[in-house]
Amino acid sequence: MTILKAFLIFLLQLIQMVLPDLGGGHETRIPAQVYSEKDLQGYWIQSFEDDYANVRVYRLSGYDFPPARGRNKMNLKTGGRLEYTPIAPDDRPVTYKGDWRLDDSLLIIRYYKDRRSKIRSFRILGREGAMLKVKGND
């Protein structure tokens, strides 16, 4: 085996470890950063202009968003208290009370709608300053 061929095989293996497997749809697991409740507390508003693929981008309130008919919002308060404001079908904001918690790199929110609890979970991909990137079922 030539040195060039060995190098190319090594490079291909390295790329496969870092990037998703495009052929099978499986992602290589990279150890997730551990976040504390304090890291995530705040009033988060979805910046759908920055969303990509299955990734949702949230920014802390105070960001200068362009006009929009509605935005998903999560107010993650101290003590696990939550105010969740999803985009309503008629574009009116309706806020639901609930709670939130962290399970490793999973953000789990529970809110109450029509006397029933609804649960949403988000895999935390990263927080960069006032921006939070998640994958989930919102």
Please tell me about this protein's structure.
This protein has an 8-stranded antiparallel beta barrel. The longest helix has 16 residues, at about 5-20. The chain is elongated, with a radius of gyration of 19 Å. The chain has helices at about 5-20, 35-40, and strands at about 40-45, 55-60, 75, 80-85, 95-105, 105-115, 115-130, 130-135. It is mainly beta. The chain contains 2 helices and 8 strands, in the order ααββββββββ. A hairpin with a 4-residue loop joins strand 3 and strand 4. The protein has a single domain (about 35-135), classed as Lipocalin, CATH 2.40.128. About 15% of the residues are buried.
Features:
138 residues, mainly beta, Lipocalin, 2 helices, 14% helix
In summary, what is this structure?
The protein has helices spanning 3-18, 37-40, and strands at residues 42-46, 55-60, 73-76, 81-85, 96-103, 106-113, 116-128, 131-136. The chain is mainly beta.
